[in-house]
Amino acid sequence: MNNISIAQLHRKFIESAGISTDTRKIQYGEMFFCLKGENFNANKFANKALELGALYVIIDDENYFVDERTILVSDALEYLQLLASYHRRQFDIPFIGITGTNGKTTTKELVNTVLSKKFKTHATKGNFNNHIGVPLTLLSIPNDTEIAIIEMGANHIGEIAELCRMAEPNYGIITSIGRAHLEGFGSIEGVIKTKTELYTSVNNSAGKLFVNGDSELLMGLSEDLTRIIYGSDSSFDIVGTKIEKSAFASLQWKDYNIESQLVGSYNYDNIMAAICIGNYFQVEDDKIAEAIENYAPENQRSQWKKSDNNELIIDAYNANPSSMKVAIESIEQLKTVNKWLILGDMLELGNESSKEHSDLIDNIDPKLLKSTIFVGPEFIKASKGKDLICFIDTASAAIWLEDNPITQSVVLVKGSRGIALDYIGRLVDAFIKRQHLTPDLVASHGHTVFHNPAEGYTLQIGNAAAISPHINCKLVSDFRSQDVALGGQGAPLVPIGDELLFTKYKACINLGGVANISTNKEGERIAWDIGFCNMPMNYLMQEYDKSYDKDGENASEGSINNGLLQELNKLKYYKQNHPKSLGREQFENDILPLLKNSETNTKDKLRTWVEHISEQIAASLKDISGEILITGGGAFNGFLIENIKSKTESNIIIPNKQLVDSKEALIFAFLGVLRLEGEINILSSVTGAKRNHCSGIIS
Question: Is residue 56 located within the same domain as residue 125?
Fold first, then answer.
């Protein structure tokens, strides 16, 4: 093990271009820390990090030592945190620590916006507020920073104390304390104990606290500590009066009527916190007001989105009892006629979950709302015996909304980042900016999470709530739910594009996770999923720490296991008539057991799978002659393609790389256009639905 001190490690850090913990994002000259977790071990990527240009790599497993650029330590995460703490002590500037059950990220953004009017600030990016995010934030502080703003999150007792030992804040604010992460904290007392660890840390450094005077709890917890109080009472140090004039948070402070772009009067507290901190650091009053009015949320917190039919309030980042309560109260107070709530389950509430969901339902005043839609298994349980609109998942809710559209209403969509609602939206936004596009339409294919049409459900991530806040054009999403509701398979959907855009080919095959085919038979388009293609091979390649078998190199080195091949070919799915489709459930229930129970080696399994899927594809082409267009990722697998060619007399055509990569995306954009035009975009002959139909939700 390298005998390296933190001071020596810090000198190497100063030489570097910064810190990285992800080889997918590493920049030349950075120092790479190999972190470990339950499902990953970055030590495996030590050599790759060096190949990508890392100056040094910090490992904690000697089996991955490469050369003198590799620094072996006892625990890479611990050394990352110690290095961050050492680096923080190189700055003699204000460090503002921010934590709280609700409002900490919005408050952090507002404080940073206000203080940057006068100072060179550095603030936590996004919600990098945990035991990894905080040290990364500290290590990214530029030398010329005048004020650092550090957000701190926690989901178990003692975590804020750990973060404070690294950040050593000399100023602090707790935005609120409520019932969240009870699974980790155990009780509300555990939440209070952990959050107030920030007060203790700041007090120990003889620093100052900024306290919401309207919170009896926070006032009591900060009693006898050095504090500056803000709120609505005239006796406080900073006083603001809430103005109820629209859906957006507004207030009177001194001579300023501040109208923010944050939806919900509950943001009054966050705005007042920013005013208080800005005032303390002597930012000019007009600059404070200007900064708050110009701040526009971009992270699914209190966002206002106007569609053709409705006004949406998207607060889909955090969902706990206290944040739900204030968001609902804010909507109930709006002076408008048609108000809807669409509420998803609250996560990480442990044994309190049933009670909290039931209490939330009981506290909603139906007289103040048009209606409420509840989504999720916890709300399902809590709604028993009550006459409510409730669905097990978003797909089921989407089907209902297609038949019962909400119009001319204000709709609150309140959910949790625990189901990654905005991930695809951020990817779409990044792609649009990178390609310098101004699209008229975005069509979301979605990524299937659950698919069982026999039971009447399908669920994809990549829906309207995930994408709409990130784009400035129409969106068409959720193409599948209506088809399943009409008795169809919800897949495949591409064949209408094959029919209208690729008419010269006798059949079109896509070799993705699943191989599917579409063709004409007696003047009618038919299509079906042939079988799993890349998914099993990608699963098997995990043994080699690779995501796929490039060009079939590993499969080509294996031998066919006839016993396994016979078992695969006997699967009941192949005896079913089309239309038929596959989902991950079949892979896990039918394919994985056969692969896991087979005693043959991985390369033989790969070779056997290539043989198996090639035979199934050839069988699908038995009565089809002429040119067959093959696209999808499997088209790049030369070994697979040669096997398919060897088993069929059809003329296999592999187009250029652009079409291989983008054919499915092209057709889904086409499906979106058909939806906007009100034209048929789903064929019953393909999916088995009761009728041809025009599917997709427009937002």
Answer: no
